[in-house]
Every structure is written in structure tokens, then in C-alpha cells.
């Protein structure tokens, strides 16, 4: 046993040494650490082991990892990844986060699937994502990086929202906050236009983009840079005006981007086989004015989930061959943005790759 106090983690108490975990294979790597699939030799459980990278001793423990630990210790929900413990390495300052393990991340799974998810399967996944986001927002937490590669799925069909390195507690809507958050393809228009403050609605825009991607089996708005991202958004949803988005003209970058003159919403053309109820929910999530954007709690009650086909039960979801290793997972080591068609943008933080054998927890505990 070792103490986490030297790194400012004293509230965690004594930590097990990382030597009790047998590394099986590497799942991925990012700027904030390397993630391994590992076995707990004391109980045989398979876990995901994330090594936290500390680039220089003077920098101390990374704020993103500290934030991730604190939030995940506070939040408990069946659709939020479980941080089991923090383990200490042999070297001073060596720290590992121990997560439950899931066999898939939804983004890589979608890339490898021969067919898209069915409407019933999309309902199942979207419901679980909305439940996770509802839990976060009820606790006044904004995730700020919801994307398919941060959605984990185990072989029982249970979805887990992961990677809380960019998450923050929402305490003051008027306080200036970081704008360079959320991977570009999932970034809300108020962020792209330089809003000086934002709300939990930025997560709901990301949910809408993920929802559309599950239906399409490809990214909904794959922009190459910020102006292009806005251009694609306006081409799909229509170009906003201060009439439909009060306060738009006061945003920092309003008028600086060249946007198409489009007054039409083209979601119906993008999803010709989807019912009106599905398009309605998608439109509510992808509403330009963040004050009018649907909340997770309201979205969970939407009529699309009540209509046929009924949402697939998680335990009846298809099963797939496990892909979470470096040779099979095309997103384990992402390439730089713009290097070729169809490539995914580099994530802003390392994925907290993770998770299986999920404990059944009955409610969101703060």
C-alpha cells in the first residue's frame, strides 16, 4: 500500500500498488496517459488501467486527471464509467487510474460494423446516453467532450459515458470559461462563435451530433476547421439569424465567418427513412439557440422512444467480437485532423478507455 497524499490525492487514502495488476495489452495512448487492459491478480477481474502522464515534476498532478478522479468518485450511475480505485506505481509520482472494463467503444465499433445500427438499437444507445447526461446535469456537471469514442459498450449492451478529463462543475453561467473544448465535429455553434459563457446545452448539441452519427453510420458534421464546421452546420440546418437566436449578433465571432445563405432545414433529406418524431428530437437537440435546446430530462420523455419500433433492451443488443486492442481498433491511435478523407479528429484529451463487469447501481448518487 502507498499513500496518494504527496500528489494532492490524500482524500483517496491508501492506494494499492500497481504491481497487483497484470498488463494484458495496450488499448490506446494520448497526451494524458496510456491505457492498458489488465487483470487484477488478487481477484482475477479484468480492468482498464490508465497510466497518468506527469510531464514534469514541477507541473504536479495533471488537472484533467484530478478533475476526472473527483467527479467520478462523486458520480455513480449505471451509464457512467466506474472508477474503481487509484493505484500507485513504483516510481515517485507514478499513478494509475483503475476503471471497469468494457469490450467496445461505440465509435470504433461503428467503423467496423458491416451494417448500421437499427432504429431500435439507436434508441437503446441514445436512451442510455441521455440517462448519463441527465445524471451529470442534475449534478451541475458539464462533460464537454461527448463523442462516440467516449461511449463504451460492454457485452451486455450497457453503454457507459467515459473520459471526464474536460468535465467541469457548472457553478456560474456568467463566469468566462474555456472555449477550446469539445472535439470539433461535436462542438456547439455558440462555442464556435466565441460565446464568453455557456451552459449544459453544449452537451446536448454533442448528443444530437452523436445521435445523427449513429443513424448515418458516419459523422453528421465532419468539419475540417471551425469556419468549415459552421458552414456544414448551416448547410444542414439553415443559417441562423438574430431573429431565431436572440443575442447571436453579440457573439465574438459573429460576422467574421463566411456562411452560406440558407434558410432551409435539410435534416429530412439527410434522413429520408426516419420518422417525423425522430427528426423532431434531432432538431430539438440541434437547435441553434442554446436557451431553446432540449434538455436531457425532456428528451428522455420524447415520443420517438414511445413509438414502434420499441427501444431494444440492452441485454438483447447484438454482440460483436471484442476489438479493443491496438491492431483492431482504428481509433486507438488517432491521426492528425485533415490528413485524409474519413479520418477522425484528434481528441482534445486522452480517452479514459475502459470498462466491464459493471456493478448494478440503482440511481445517480451525488
From TrEMBL:
ATP binds at residue 50. GO terms for biological process: regulation of mitotic cell cycle. Pfam families: Pkinase. Signal peptide: none annotated. Keywords: ATP-binding, Kinase, Nucleotide-binding, Serine/threonine-protein kinase, Transferase. May form a complex composed of at least the catalytic subunit CRK2 and a cyclin. Belongs to the protein kinase superfamily. CMGC Ser/Thr protein kinase family. CDC2/CDKX subfamily. This is Cyclin-dependent kinase 2 homolog. It comes from Symbiodinium necroappetens.
